[in-house]
Amino acid sequence: MHDDRLLVEGRLERALRQFIRPAQYALRAPLALSVWHAPGEPVPVATALEAAYEPFETGTEWGKPWSTSWFRLQGQVPEEWRGRRVEVVVDPGFSGDGPGFQAEGLVYDASGVPLKGIHPRNRHIPVADLARGGEPVHLLLEAAANPAVLHDFVPTPLGDVLTAGNTPIYRFASADLAVLDEEVWQLTMDIEVLSELMAELDPDRPRRHEILRALEDMLDALDLHDVSGTAAAARAELSGVLAKPAHASAHRVSATGHAHIDSAWLWPLRETVRKASRTFANVTALAEEYPELVFSCSQAQQYAWVKEHQPHIWERIKKAVAGGNWAPVGSMWVESDANMPGGEALARQITHGRRFFREEFGVETEEIWLPDSFGYTAAFPQLAKLAGIRWFLTQKLSWNQSNKMPHHTFWWEGIDGTRVFTHFPPVDTYNSQFHGSELAYAERNFADKGRATRSLVPFGWGDGGGGPTREMMERARRLRSLEGSPRVEIEKPSAFFAAAEEEYGAQAPVWSGELYLELHRATYTTQAATKRGNRRSEHALREAELWCTAAAVNDPAYVYPYDTLDRLWKTVLLHQFHDILPGSSIAWVHREARETYERVLAELDELTLAAARSLGAGGPAALNASPYPRSEVVENGDGTLVHVVVPALGTQSLDVAAGSTREPGTGVSALTDGTAIVLTNERLRVTVDAAGLLTSVRDLAEGREVLAAPGNLLQLHPDHPTHYDAWDLDRHYRRRHTDLTDAESVELVEDGPLRVAVRVVRSFGDSRITQEIRLAAGSRRVDVVTDVDWRESEKVLKAAFPLDVHAERSAAEIQFGHVHRPTHANTGWDAARYEICAHRWLRVAEEGYGVAVLNDSTYGHDVTRTEHGGTLGTTVRLTLLRAPHSPDPRTDQGTHRFTYALLPGATTGDAVEEGLALNLPLRVANAPVRGSLVSVDHPAVTVESVKLADDRSGDVVVRLYESRGGRAEALVSTSFPVARAEVADLLERPLEPAEAGEAGLALALRPFQIVTLRLRPA
User: Which entry of 160, 190, 262, 372 is annotated as an active-site residue?
Assistant: First the structure.
């Protein structure tokens, strides 16, 4: 036979494009339009129903960026359409961009009940399956003029309503009544499925040629000038090849409907409320037509929004959950970033999310669902298990730049040894459309074939929402068992995970440690103010809960602020979404985030002060929210400095402190040595040269120099990622930098007796940095308090500490512990970690000696082995600020204040304690002297949180963990009598009685083990 494949395929492509697809809607009739342009922000449908509308014509421009226009669509089904399937088809001006990244809308009936959303790939609203003829059509379209912001990462003002302008960006194309020719539409589905399958089969496979000839026969049977009249005959020619079942050994795809909706990204939070409503309306409508649909949906926050704003859709969701068409998944409040949230915050993501799904739907979610977050902390497996979660899903690791993950289904082992069964779909997308290329790729790419036979495919339009479409459902029906293709079964993720674990769990490989994403490394740094707001809010919540609990057990009349704390926690959790906290959203999102954090911190401050007052009468006191005792200098309310010793989780009177004196020789001093200033306390001697650099930090107790070269060296690099401006810090940035060694001034501004400080001022480009290098009496830390007026463009600012320490690895704090990473680049996996995430501290050490670098709001770091004068040392750098232009063209521009510190001679325990101290500064407030609310007699056991139980029983919940990476036996005691003590799960549900004795509760912890205690006050 002659090889005419290309001719047949070309013939097919033109017939489909020019004749068959256009024939799907056989008849059209325009609807009459009128419009009301809503002023300002979106309004409820009740407001729109009462508004005054004016006539509107198709072809007219509408929609300034971020505005909303309400369109009335009115008409009548023609009598001659009796017995036909009639729909309204709307195009308000869709562009070539995908769903969720341009205009979109929600359609209501005449009474204001939401029907379904529209987007470029889902434009129809059903009118009648079998029209009677003459039916009136009265619809209301809420049309959002959302601009397309991200085009080749070119800076644009469209990312904020304040700068986007008032020029209309859409032209309304059409709004028609239309007859859907179901036979032609089904023919289109047949052709697409078969032609896409054919394209994936090798040319030497008989099945490919069988499909080709069937498609050729179909074309011969089809009259292109009468597609409607000959579609049935054409479909008959394809029935044979569509009926052939898949091979017994075919890869098994568990497909689940999905609509990844970024809670904010290229749109503000308020728009996500509407995106969720549109998508959820679409899905519940689709389930009525396709009862086999299972839609998997995460993010309890989005459910809560829909419950509040769209009660009709909410009732449809509840019905779909009860009917099995809807599967709540994910167990978290939002799909958060999975690197930077603190330990307690990550726990609360899970507890708030899982509790919401249980209370609203009676569903116990069993998986973590994070397809799009930018890497995953090694604390996750233990947190998942403690919450009763069995499985973990991600997809993002397929984005790795350098190294391909060796497994798709595996056991993921956390830092404590806990394992969770994990899958990331080999289809390499969470927005599948059931294209033949996607399914064939999933089968080829699946790394575990031979032992495992199945993988998961989330299908539906996503990122900006949209969800599954009827076309996808039709494809799935044809692909359920089709020769040459993987088998496709639509089912809940839990069904997939259970089957996969049963099949492969005993043989699945183990991945130990973090799931580091070899991409998007700049998300540890971008939008520094957002990250600072998160860190400070996390610690302010910790502090507020502690003192509110202390007040509650002290004063029976005190009313614990359950509702306020719940609301504030959920606000902070929302802003940990994986495009907010990482800094990759538009300017509008981060402007609002900064304002939100200010409100959160102010409200938490008032809660804490009110709780302190409820502790009883007292004068000025230092309140210590850290689980470790403190001996340090604090600033009194009048600006004077006082040295104070405060118990862990307790208070101390400043009057007592002011009346005490430090031992001789335990103060601080400053002297000038030529052009240098030397700061000394009983532990450290710090030399600051004329350029404001640390030329020496000497550990007096150990008798050794800490620095291998000048420290606190600010370095400015050009920062031009190949793609993804806000997200990426590409390796090539390291090849050029400028050392900022010119100082406008270096002066001693504080000269004891309790603290000394040198102020260094530098100007560069259009920016200005003021730093105070501080050393306090008795302190082992050198603090660098930094104020920056940052006006740079596409630069990254680093602070370098070249340390005279020979370290083969670094230890970086993560949630509930720390991870080790090599300082070398021996392998591609090592080399890819050239930028890493740390929480409050990062430590490097050689045998017998270590140094930690602490911070109060910085996450990005790099650690390298560097040679200085023939000696190999280790350089630790903090990544302080960036200045990308997309999607926010003015990222990080403005003023910033943060502190980092050098901690010489630091053990891991020292790093833990001092990191907490830096992030939980002693608070001065009027309060009585109180001992530790909760005490632990082993320093490796760190209290993470103290609160009242969420069930409002009055029980006290204490979460603690082993923080040094060893085993610890500890006694836990409280300042209040305890009637009952239990070990609980992460959701505060009792598991077993705690071992109690006269001295306290006895605990034996494994390395990095988390324990939650539930205590009933007597």
Answer: 372
